[in-house]
């Protein structure tokens, strides 16, 4: 077990870019509205962090056991991101609202696949090839702590940006999310066929 600050910093920056919780603020605000103004920040962060740590140590084995390769996993995540992006760009509502929405929104789609999604999982698999597992685990914990703070302050961000500010950011990041979904999909397709 070799703790290396440089490895932690590099892994943290990669995961920070992939998770992109700041860019996901419009989605968080929308989910919060769909869930009746309630999102459990602690629960979402804990579940996402647990999924990522678990995937760090047993992810490849789980995927191999159930016969799923990383490319197929990426394609599945791409579809979910694609539909979330469509909601943002077109202003349509695909996320079904019911009496359980407030209970489940913190887990699906917030903790998984938004925070601990296909991008995070594939990044973790890639990082394992280069860095010590302990350093990646610390990087995950640091990122999840930051995610928790952003989720906790989502109401403050919403007030500061206002409805029009959120709407503009939502459209812009919806297009970015759409591009990420397409990239995940195409790289997944390449991984399967080439």
Quick summary:
The protein is mainly α.
Topology pattern, helix = H, strand = E: HHHHHHHHH
Q: Number of DSSP helices?
A: 9
Q: Find the structural class using helix and strand composition.
A: mainly alpha
Q: Termini distance?
A: 36 Å
Taking Cα atoms only, what radius of gyration do you get, to the nearest Å?
17 Å
Total separate domains: 1
Structure, described:
This protein has about 190 residues and is mainly alpha-helical. It has one domain (about 5-194). The chain contains nine helices and no strands. The chain is globular, with a radius of gyration of 17 Å.
Task: List its traits.
81% helix, globular, mainly alpha, 194 residues
Please render the helix and strand layout as text.
Layout: H1 5-19, H2 25-34, H3 41-65, H4 70-90, H5 101-104, H6 106-115, H7 118-130, H8 133-152, H9 154-193
Helix pairs in contact: 1-7, 1-8, 2-9, 3-6, 3-7, 3-8, 4-9
């Amino acid at each position: 077990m070799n703790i290396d600050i440089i490895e932690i910093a590099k892994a943290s920056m990669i995961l920070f870019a992939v998770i992109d919780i700041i860019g996901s603020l419009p989605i968080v605000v929308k989910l919060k509205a769909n869930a009746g103004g309630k999102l459990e920040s602690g629960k979402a962060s804990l579940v996402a962090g647990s999924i990522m740590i678990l995937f760090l140590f047993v992810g490849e084995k789980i995927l191999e056991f159930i016969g799923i390769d990383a490319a197929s996993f990426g394609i599945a995540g791409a579809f979910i991101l694609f539909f979330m992006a469509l909601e943002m760009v077109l202003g349509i509502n695909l996320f079904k609202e019911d009496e359980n929405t407030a209970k489940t929104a913190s887990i699906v789609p917030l903790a998984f696949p938004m925070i601990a999604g296909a991008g995070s999982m594939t990044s973790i698999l890639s990082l394992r090839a280069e860095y010590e597992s302990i350093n990646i685990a610390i990087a995950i914990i640091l990122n999840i702590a930051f995610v928790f703070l952003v989720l906790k302050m989502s109401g403050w961000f919403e007030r500061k940006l206002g409805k029009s500010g959120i709407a503009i950011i939502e459209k812009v990041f919806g297009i970015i999310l759409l591009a990420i979904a397409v990239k995940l999909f195409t790289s997944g397709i390449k991984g399967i066929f080439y």
